Task: inverse folding
């Protein structure tokens, strides 16, 4: 047994030093013999005594020392085991599949199990799934919630070879030759402080009364101050209840500050102030509506205020009566369920017309483009801008790539017409060669850069003008020098017709141009049945005075037999979802313009009793196009925004690239179901 246990390392060398000194003594004794024999003999006797004593001590102390070392090692192992068992950090060992092997006291106390527990860790902490265990990665971390407390489980692989050495008592597969050590860190207090810090962040907001002047005009003059006081009281009370501060900056504008926790509470009730303020009624014929823009999570308080300004502009650009929350780069929308209020005044149109004329006059040429798959409204608005440029003798071009059949009857009147330039219509490739820093690019009927006919043109010049009647979304043309976006307008052609009236006194709109503008209004309003206001009919009357012929326009948009059959088939195969939404698919085979038939069928389905909104989709150019229509009970714009599209409250659409019809129908139904459950519909 003694021969089986040997010393090693520095301790072995330290104990052998006395024996090694014998060599020094022998050399010294030999040297003394040469000097003096008697001295040499005396030294030799001393050497023998030293050798005997050193050997005796080495042999005797070796066994005693080995015994003490063994006792120390045993005690050290027990201490180490006890320390690990009583370690303040919860600690456990698992096999490679996550089954429990051993737990220390803290771990057992937390999970209320003992060391005989051999089930998987996911039976204790469901968040720790098999995918979360260390495998390809040597270390993983999982956030878990257990018994009302937050824990961070840090897991890492421990090699079995390293634990058991070469003489392993276990045989394991090479890819599973490890155990998993798990540490639990209680982060409840830390997370509480983080949440508290997050909830205490400052939130800035701007509140605008959308129709302040119109509402006051609808009530007696002596009661106007009472109406304003009631609105002020309603707004102040609402925000004071959630510990917010409201200050009135102008007659119809407010500045609000609150904590983020207060904003979270408002988001849960979807900003009920939007509906509450409409209940203020002292005889006013028109209900007051609010627009709110909120900014948070900026790098500074000033940036939060800037976010709030951007948000309120977006809310107003989308028609008002809604809340826009800008959280850094993310934007959320609430409300927007009522139709935007039409403004009776044309001051804005006149101001925009004069500004447009100045920009066009200062540049060498004008290029007009609309959205992809140009429709009648886009072409009509573009032709109106073409006439405006020609009035001030500026070269003008309209960008149309692959014109769809729906607009070819209108375009044919300009092509090969001696009154118009042969290069009036250009392709995207030709437009890229034309546009430079001395060019005005006018974008009509869209405000999304990715939807434009040629997005590259927006980066080739700094002078960009946007005229559109669609509500703004997250994606907007941000570098426009002039932006005229009015969601209340029925069509882009209506807006352009108003602008042309103030653009120049000597402007003369030809019959064919008036036909295009009139056709755009007629198509977008479904023959003046939807989204029509006083200014819509005034614009139509102006175009009629300019020579627009209703009969001529109607003949141009008659359907051929194939299109009519396709529309009838689409209506026939329509299904009803949730007893309120009509969903159908329009065939695209053998149709020149299935998207137009899709929109027409969606309009027809609204004539069915009980249908609140209709959705018709078609597969065209490897993209699913969805046309959504409603009368007044459902806001189809917010539905289409969930699918990446947009539009108006009762006319909207979306495009789903690389998607099948069945996938699009499932996505639409799940979106509708989700919005119904959330209370958005």
Result:
């Amino acid at each position: 047994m003694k021969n089986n246990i040997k010393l090693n390392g520095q301790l072995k060398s330290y104990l052998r030093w006395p024996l090694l000194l014998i060599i020094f003594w022998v050399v010294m004794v030999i040297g003394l013999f040469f000097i003096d024999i008697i001295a040499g003999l005396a030294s030799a006797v001393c050497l023998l005594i030293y050798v005997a004593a050193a050997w005796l001590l080495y042999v005797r102390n070796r066994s005693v020392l080995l015994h003490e070392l063994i006792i120390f090692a045993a005690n050290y192992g027990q201490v180490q085991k006890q320390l690990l068992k009583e370690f303040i950090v919860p600690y456990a060992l698992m096999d490679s599949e996550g089954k429990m092997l051993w737990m220390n006291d803290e771990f057992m106390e937390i999970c209320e199990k003992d060391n005989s527990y051999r089930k998987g860790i996911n039976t204790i902490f469901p968040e720790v799934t098999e995918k979360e265990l260390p495998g390809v990665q040597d270390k993983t971390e999982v956030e878990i919630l257990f018994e009302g407390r937050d824990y961070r489980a840090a897991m890492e692989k421990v090699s079995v070879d390293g634990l058991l050495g070469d003489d392993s008592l276990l045989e394991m597969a090479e890819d599973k030759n490890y155990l998993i050590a798990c540490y639990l860190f209680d982060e409840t207090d830390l997370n509480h402080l983080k949440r508290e810090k997050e909830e205490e962040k400052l939130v800035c907001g701007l509140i605008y009364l959308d129709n302040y002047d119109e509402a006051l005009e609808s009530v007696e003059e002596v009661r106007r101050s009472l109406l304003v006081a009631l609105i002020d009281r309603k707004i102040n009370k609402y925000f004071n209840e959630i510990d917010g501060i409201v200050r009135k900056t102008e007659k119809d504008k407010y500045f609000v500050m609150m904590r983020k926790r207060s904003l979270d509470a408002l988001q849960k009730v979807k900003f009920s102030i939007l509906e509450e303020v409409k209940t203020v009624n002292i005889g006013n014929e028109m209900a007051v509506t609010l627009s709110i823009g909120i900014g948070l999570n900026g790098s500074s308080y000033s940036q939060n205020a800037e976010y709030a300004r951007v948000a309120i502009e977006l809310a107003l650009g989308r028609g008002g009566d809604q809340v826009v929350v800008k959280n850094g780069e993310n934007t959320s929308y609430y409300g927007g369920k009522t139709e935007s209020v039409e403004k009776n005044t044309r001051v804005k149109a006149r101001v925009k017309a004069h500004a447009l004329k100045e920009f066009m006059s200062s540049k060498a040429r004008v290029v007009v483009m609309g959205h992809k798959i140009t429709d009648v409204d886009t072409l009509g608005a573009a032709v109106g801008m073409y006439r405006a440029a020609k009035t001030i003798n500026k070269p003008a071009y309209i960008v149309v790539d692959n014109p769809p059949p729906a607009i070819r009857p209108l375009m044919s009147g300009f092509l090969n017409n001696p009154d118009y330039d042969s290069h009036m219509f250009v392709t995207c490739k030709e437009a890229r060669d034309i546009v430079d820093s001395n060019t005005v690019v006018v974008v009509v009927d869209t405000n999304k850069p990715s939807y434009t006919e040629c997005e590259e043109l927006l980066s080739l010049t700094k002078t960009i003008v946007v005229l559109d009647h669609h509500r703004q979304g997250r994606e907007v043309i941000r570098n426009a020098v002039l932006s005229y976006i009015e969601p209340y307008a029925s069509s882009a052609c209506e807006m352009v017709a108003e602008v042309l009236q103030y653009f120049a006194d000597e402007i003369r709109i030809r019959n064919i141009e008036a036909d295009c503008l009139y056709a755009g209004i007629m198509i977008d309003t479904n023959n003046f049945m939807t989204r029509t206001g006083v200014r819509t009919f005034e614009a139509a009357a102006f175009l009629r005075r300019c020579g627009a012929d209703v009969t001529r326009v109607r003949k141009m948009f008659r359907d051929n037999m194939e299109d009519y059959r396709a529309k009838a088939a689409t209506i026939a195969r329509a299904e009803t979802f949730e007893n309120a939404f009509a969903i159908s698919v329009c065939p695209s085979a053998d149709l020149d313009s299935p998207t137009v038939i899709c929109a027409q069928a969606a309009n027809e389905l609204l004539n069915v009793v009980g249908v609140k909104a209709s959705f018709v989709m078609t597969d065209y150019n490897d993209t699913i196009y969805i046309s959504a229509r409603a009368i007044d009970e459902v806001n189809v714009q917010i539905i289409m925004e969930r699918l990446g599209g947009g539009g108006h409250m009762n006319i909207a659409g979306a495009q789903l690239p690389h998607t099948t019809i069945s996938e699009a129908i499932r996505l639409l139904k799940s979106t509708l179901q989700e919005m119904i459950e959330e209370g958005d519909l």
Summary: The chain has a mean pLDDT of 83. The longest strand covers residues 149-159. The two ends are 86 Å apart (CA to CA).
